[in-house]
Design goal:
The protein has 364 residues and is of the alpha/beta class. It is built from 11 helices and 16 strands. It starts with 15 loop residues before the first strand and ends in a 6-residue tail after the last strand.
């Protein structure tokens, strides 16, 4: 079935849900292996979300079980593991808002290099490049575009934050008045019950193939729909929030969206050109970089707006409320373009600033 085709009638636009949360912790690591214990040292966590499209163990959500065990999360806390791509943070937020959890740890990571880079450090073409994979001609993109990253966020329920809201959409029944999407945008058909491991053809199909034209169409229109939906529920939110963190699909797509939306990097920072596509971790890394550089502080309101395979997209407004010090990675992620001129940059002693200390690992 071709993309954007559905036999179902159009569905109404996604409604907005209350999102009374503040971010009380953040940590990130780019391109290096980091100890799980260093991502977060959670206390009194009652929900844990793990979002990844590159799990180290693909069955029975063992990544989430291993993480919770190593983090000493109480056995009474069930793991939520989401096999999510670039739009995964919107799905996490929608689930979190419905759970009513008091304090939630959100861990996201992408490990593209073991899949897309061969033993010699060269971008792998995969055996599926001979045409057996439906998108064989795009298989090189996984190693060329997607980057390794791991991030952690802690969300605390904050009933005083009445401005918090969000929305989520799969766009499978309706896409802004157009037919919904049946194409997942990213294709990885091997390895499941349809093409079991060890059976003929499974290896050739076990690779990420990109439907480039549909990806570009979905990103450009979908990101604009995110902004339009948020503005409909919170008119003038662009001026209200300190920063808008958008998914970094690629430099050209991000720049095109900024032009269409009338945004620039002083309001919506970008790092796709420096870091590539960090998948679910893309927006948390943007936020983390602002935090450690004093560009966002306690009391600020920020917006996360993401889109990705599935397809799925969404956005949410959240307050910043990180107490004390944030220990930062060494080296730091690059400061996004024009971040230095993002309004009145805070100094370490300015009101609302978050103090930082340098170290070799990140903590939340």
């Amino acid at each position: 079935m071709p993309a954007s085709e559905t036999a179902n009638p159009p569905a109404p636009a996604a409604y907005a849900y209350p999102f009374p949360y503040r971010i009380s912790g953040v940590g990130a690591q780019i391109g290096e292996v980091i100890s799980v214990d260093a991502w977060a040292r959670p206390e009194d966590i009652d929900a844990v979300f793990v979002a990844t499209c590159t799990p180290y163990e693909i069955m029975l959500d063992q990544d989430a079980f291993n993480l919770l065990r190593r983090l000493r999360i109480p056995d009474s806390v069930p793991p939520f593991q989401l096999g999510a791509g670039c739009g995964g943070l919107s799905r996490v937020a929608a689930h979190l808002a419905r759970t009513g959890a008091r304090r939630a740890l959100v861990i996201s990571y992408n490990a593209a290099s073991p899949i897309g880079i061969d033993e010699n450090g060269v971008i792998s073409q995969y055996s599926g490049a001979d045409g057996e994979h439906p998108f064989a001609h795009t298989l090189w993109c996984s190693g060329a575009l997607f980057s390794d990253a791991a991030t952690a966020l802690v969300f605390e329920r904050d009933e005083s934050f009445e401005a918090g809201l969000g929305f989520y959409s799969r766009d499978s029944l309706d896409f802004g008045g157009e037919p919904g999407f049946s194409d997942p945008l990213i294709h990885y058909p091997g390895g499941g019950a349809t093409h079991p491991p060890g059976f003929p053809g499974s290896a050739e199909l076990s690779a990420f193939g990109l439907n480039g034209p549909e990806l570009a169409r979905y990103y450009s229109r979908g990101m604009m729909m995110n902004q339009e939906t948020m503005d409909a529920h919170r008119p003038g939110f662009v001026d209200e929030v300190r920063r808008i963190y958008t998914h970094q699909a690629g430099p050209a797509l991000v720049e095109n969206y900024h032009q269409l939306a009338g945004l620039d990097t002083r309001k919506a920072p970008a790092h796709a050109r420096e870091l590539g596509n960090l998948v679910t971790s893309a927006t948390p890394v943007l936020f983390y970089t602002d935090v450690v550089n004093g560009l966002v502080g306690t009391g600020d309101c920020v917006c996360f707006s993401v889109i990705g395979a599935g397809p799925e997209r969404g956005a949410f407004l959240v307050r910043v409320g990180i107490p004390g010090e944030v220990t930062v990675t060494t080296p730091l992620p690059p400061v996004p373009a024009a971040a230095e001129t993002a309004g009145a940059a805070r100094t370490a002693d300015a009101p609302g600033a978050i103090r930082t200390t340098a170290a070799a690992t990140a903590t939340a």
